[in-house]
Amino acid sequence: MNPPSLFSPLKIGPYQLEHRVVMAPLTRMRASRPSLAPRPMNAEYYAQRATPGGLLIAEASPVVETGFGNPGVPGIYSEAQIAGWREVVDAVHAKGGLIFLQLWHVGRVSHSSFQPGGALPVAPSAVAIPSEFKCMTADGKVVDYETPRALETDEVALMVEAYRQGAKNALVAGFDGVEIHGANGYLIEQFLQSRSNLRTDRYGGSIENRVRFLMEVTQAVTEVWGASRVGVRLSPYGIANGSGEADPMPLYGHAITALDKLGLAYLHFIEPRASGTGRAEVDWQNVPSAMVLYRPMWSGVLITAGNFVGDTAQSAVAEGHADAIAFGRYFISNPDLPRRLQRGYPLTKYNRATFYAGEEKGYTDYPVHDELAQA
Ligand SMILES: Cc1cc2nc3c(=O)[nH]c(=O)nc-3n(C[C@H](O)[C@H](O)[C@H](O)COP(=O)(O)O)c2cc1C
């Protein structure tokens, strides 16, 4: 049998993908304000990147008002947001594409200026992100991160319910599935890692306790969707937003083994060689490969992301390290990325200055490859 290729079909849960070029979740900060609902321009952007049987993972979307740390990010907790997302989903479906929504809470990666009533951000423990990392306030000032307020034990259960409600809202909006954002130093990863979790209740201390919040959120979300339409994103060895576990293997080995029992749609990594949040152009050498290390612990579909281009993506799939590759920055600047990779067309370079916020420029105005002009 031939090894799989980036362009061979793949079954993810109940869905049949026609190719394995996945659009990674990408925060673009272009939702309507003040509703924080997706708007027609957002639907156009996703539709441009949809292909028959291609999977898009829509940008991280807070499940509750305390979950924001950036302006202009779309939410998934209000009627207007559900209606806005439905327009996005319909536009993607009209092109035969599939779309999952990434469910988000930033935890301590926020500032009181984003919080209801100007309260402190919430987190597992009252531990601030170190001052070498800077925080942008809602009115654009660069400041140190505040020390968050630790969630009470009964508030953790309410947070699990917020994810459940976000999952329900995504179902109402018509998505094909959801991805739980457990990466990049945000709330779930703050629970996972010992540097941000000093709790002494059942959510802190031992690895099993630190993994509990991830498992409870995943359990709640799978109760809404069924496990086969739920993915989880993790970034073992990542260092985004002040994260990082001294010895990731026992922690992530435990988490991945526990998740593997659930029969999820997929596990989705960010490779440590890349910037987890895509905020820097780095390609760290001599770092572990998440897909290589953890693949033996995962029996389902594995997606990974981080500095892939056509040939490296193809070999990762052909060698069996991953089943599909998610592309971030090159999917921003190449709306027809699957076709370009399949035909070996050159890629348009992205413009970092237009990643976050703004209008059409750097968002819906990237061209598709014009075969005639190149001939
Ligand atoms: C502008 C931008 C926004 C991003 N937003 C998210 C996000 O909302 N959720 C997430 O899990 N990762 C996010 N990432 C990380 C990407 O999903 C991806 O893992 C990373 O960019 C590495 O892939 P690449 O090398 O193909 O760009 C973002 C990256 C960029 C560049």
UniProtKB/TrEMBL annotation:
It comes from the Bacteria. Residues 5-346 form the NADH:flavin oxidoreductase/NADH oxidase N-terminal domain. Its EC number is 1.-.-.-. It is an enzyme of class 1 (oxidoreductase). The keyword Oxidoreductase applies. The keyword Oxidoreductase applies. One of its GO terms (molecular function) is oxidoreductase activity. Keywords: Oxidoreductase. It holds the Pfam family Oxidored_FMN. PANTHER family: NADH OXIDOREDUCTASE-RELATED, OXIDOREDUCTASE. This is N-ethylmaleimide reductase.
